[in-house]
Specification:
221 residues, Rossmann fold, 10 helices, 52% helix, disordered N terminus, binds adenosine-5'-diphosphate
Length: 221
């Protein structure tokens, strides 16, 4: 663990007095697994991927803007964004990616802030897969927690979890920050290369540390 930074940052938006940890890691590193272990111990976990999914689900707040920008053909009969079609579109067309992000990013930030404000847990964890490389999220959190494992293990887990080929996993990894860049940005690191018997104690140590830090983050009057 590095030195503790507990001072409130003047450049931050809302949620004064809430201690916020940004949890990140490459695909298959174990972000969700680790976030769930923190949640079981009482942290409030807000996952930007889950928020993005909700925004593009039937009745989601992003649907009308997506329909206006991309057309009805990107909306399924049930009212959700057609994910497979949109994935292909943004992969083939960088402008489409920019347009989609222009719709989603402000809504994701707003929803995350709303959820953080509502949270009554002692501290909040934002799960942000692409935190390293995002100036906004790096500034928004008080600490960066990186879930790390060797790349070979990431590849193996994702091939198994998503029934993907090695090449497909490598293509996704190529769009993410490098392992070295993530580790360089980390305040804390959870090494997730063994079983739960080593992961759980590592999470418990950090949880105790975050509880102690959050006690210094009392709301400003
Ligand atoms: P991420 O959210 O970073 O993509 P996940 O938490 O979904 O990663 O983990 C990727 C896959 O690897 C999942 O199927 C998960 O169950 C498995 N996994 C993660 N950590 C471990 C571990 N320590 N031991 C065994 N399986 C694990």
């Amino acid at each position: 663990m590095r030195d503790v930074h507990t001072e409130a940052r003047p450049d931050l938006p809302a949620t004064p007095g809430k201690f916020i940890v940004g949890l990140t890691g490459g695909i298959g590193s174990g972000k969700t697994t680790v976030a769930n272990l923190f949640a079981e111990r009482g942290a409030a976990v807000i996952d930007t991927d889950v928020v993005a999914h909700q925004l593009t689900a039937p009745g989601g707040l992003a649907i009308s803007a997506i329909r206006d920008t991309f057309g009805e053909t990107f909306i399924n009969a049930d009212g959700a964004m057609d994910r497979a079609k949109m994935r292909a579109q943004v992969f083939a067309n960088p402008d489409a990616k920019t347009q989609l992000e222009a719709i989603l990013h402000p809504l994701i930030r707003k929803e995350v802030e709303r959820a953080a404000e509502e949270a009554s847990a002692p501290y909040v964890i934002f799960v942000v897969p692409l935190l390293v490389g995002s100036d906004y999220w790096q500034k928004r959190v008080s600490r960066v927690l990186v879930v790390d494992c060797p790349e070979a293990l990431q590849i193996q887990r994702v091939m198994q979890r998503n029934a993907m080929t090695r090449e497909q996993v490598l293509a996704i990894m190529a769009t993410q920050a490098t392992r070295a860049a993530r580790l360089a940005a980390a305040d804390d690191i959870v090494v997730n290369e063994g079983g739960l018997e080593t992961l759980v104690p590592a999470v418990e140590r950090l949880h105790a540390h975050y509880l102690a830090l959050s006690a210094q983050f009392l709301p400003r009057k």
